[in-house]
Amino acid sequence: MALLCYNKGCGNRFDEDKNSDEACLYHPGVPIFHDALKGWSCCKKRTTDFSEFLSIKGCSRGRHSNEKPQEPLRPEVTSEKGDTLLHTGPEIIYQGPKSAEALKKERPSSDEPKSKLSVKVSPSLAQVLEKLDISNKEEAKKKEIEAAVPGTRCKNSGCKTVYQGPETDAETCCHHPGAPVFHEGYKYWNCCCIKTTDFNAFLDQKGCTIGKHCWVRKQVRPAQS
Length: 225
Fold this sequence. Notes:
Layout: E1 3-4, E2 13-14, E3 24-26, E4 31-34, E5 37-40, E6 45-47, H1 50-55, E7 60-62, E8 76-78, E9 92-94, H2 100-106, H3 123-147, H4 166-169, E10 173-175, E11 180-183, E12 186-189, H5 199-203, E13 209-211
Parallel strand pairs: 4-8, 6-9
Antiparallel strand pairs: 1-2, 3-7, 4-5, 5-6, 10-13, 11-12
């Protein structure tokens, strides 16, 4: 029977008979959240995107372990006044999508007058756009399935399903469509707002939306001026 590895950053299933000192790629450190950057204390990679943070590959090799951590896995949140962990040398930073809080600050005040924008689309153009949209979605889905290999984990937040073949793609995906929020020691998803102070409990929160699995991370295209 395959066992689930609880080493941080691994999460794969393993056979104890085939376990070895080089079988597991994991993070021996703790998660760190500092000035919107997220990473692990054991390596220098940093990212602003929570899903990218969860996907950072482990930096150490060791044996798989099916023992759950005895103490809650709590991220170290630091500030300019008290940075508990300092790294020498350059850090690798991934620029992820803007958070919901940042987008909210950029929006104009709700008290400002609103103006309705008129949108006119001719019937012929609407048909062309509809066919193009369907074609693009089918092509994107085909490429996604072709790119997925057995062992690939679903990229949707909160989903831990691992791709085993075309039959896996037919399963429903239970995930969080929102963004993670860390505020005053609490962790939660802004799509369901179930708050917890335990980082492990936050990662194990069941998704609040049903949809399709995503095996390939979607690329965010820069806005064209």
